[in-house]
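Task: sequence design from structure.
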């Protein structure tokens, strides 16, 4: 609940900037709010995935210690707004997120920005692989789920680099759901049983892959990731950091152990959670909390007195 307060605060503080075209201002307000609330949490957290290096991000930077310093020693990943551009444009699916795991368990892939990802629900375990073609993955998953290939829905980020991938998905007979941003939510929805998304694929941020793995472990789903350096200089930085560029990382490779948490609060409305809403004297937020140890997904609707925030 203490971590939920931090994502709620970040989401609420971002609201005045929705649709105003200034993504840096939105992100700055969310960062300030999240950090202020994290400082009160009874834990010793180290930011493995944050806003960047210390000289670029004076707050919530990679390696920063947060919390009171007392209590559990944890790795944390923070994204005060996943979807700053969507927030600035007034689009859907912007989230405020925190992921946490035991100290030393979260993969630090910050030296290589991009990662190929493949995410599905439990039917994908033992069936899907990044070593297979997307067509074979779609067909094998459809067989495991007992549904026609023509009813399969694959989420993929709407990026020029995915043009060929999108053609292959459609050539296999499946449909696509194009994501403007936010493949974390896309991956989570692919692993949840009640959504229309069967599979989330494509190349997106490596940090988001680690964050997604924290959620997938709580859902009992499937995830694989393979680092995708954009050039040889980035590949060298990755190797120097101890990363295996040829390895296909499974859920345990991305975040080890069975004690992961994922917390998200909606900034704008989306398929995962509703965005922040003003209702008379209160501000309403919706959040989800996923915990791998208990295998639970909790939805939390909170009403905040608006006078405390305005």
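Answer:
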């Amino acid at each position: 609940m203490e971590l939920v307060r931090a994502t709620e605060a970040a989401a609420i503080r971002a609201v005045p900037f929705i649709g105003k075209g200034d993504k840096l201002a939105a992100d700055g307000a969310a960062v300030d709010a999240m950090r202020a609330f994290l400082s009160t949490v009874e834990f010793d957290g180290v930011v493995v995935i944050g806003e960047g290096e210390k000289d670029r991000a004076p707050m919530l930077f990679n390696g920063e210690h947060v919390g009171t310093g007392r209590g559990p020693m944890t790795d944390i990943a923070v994204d005060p707004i996943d979807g700053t551009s969507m927030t600035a444009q007034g689009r859907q699916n912007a989230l405020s997120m925190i992921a946490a795991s035991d100290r030393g368990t979260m993969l630090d892939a910050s030296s290589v920005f991009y990662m190929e990802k493949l995410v599905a629900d439990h039917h994908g375990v033992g069936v899907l692989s990044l070593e297979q073609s997307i067509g074979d993955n779609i067909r094998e998953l459809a067989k495991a789920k007992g549904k026609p290939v023509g009813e399969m829905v694959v989420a993929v980020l709407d990026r020029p680099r995915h043009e060929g991938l999108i053609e292959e998905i459609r050539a296999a007979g499946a449909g696509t759901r194009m994501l403007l941003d936010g493949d974390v939510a896309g991956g989570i929805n692919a692993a949840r049983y009640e959504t229309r998304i069967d599979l989330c694929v494509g190349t997106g941020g490596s940090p988001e892959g680690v964050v997604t793995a924290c959620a997938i472990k709580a859902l009992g789903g499937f995830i694989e990731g393979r680092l995708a350096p954009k050039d040889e200089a980035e590949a060298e930085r990755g190797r120097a950091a101890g990363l295996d560029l040829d390895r296909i990382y499974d859920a345990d490779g991305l975040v080890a152990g069975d004690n992961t948490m994922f917390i998200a609060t909606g900034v704008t409305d989306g398929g995962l959670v509703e965005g922040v809403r003003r209702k008379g004297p209160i501000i309403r937020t919706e959040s989800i909390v996923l915990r791998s140890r208990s295998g639970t997904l909790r939805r939390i609707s909170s009403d905040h007195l608006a006078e405390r925030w305005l």
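The chain is about 30% helix and 25% strand.
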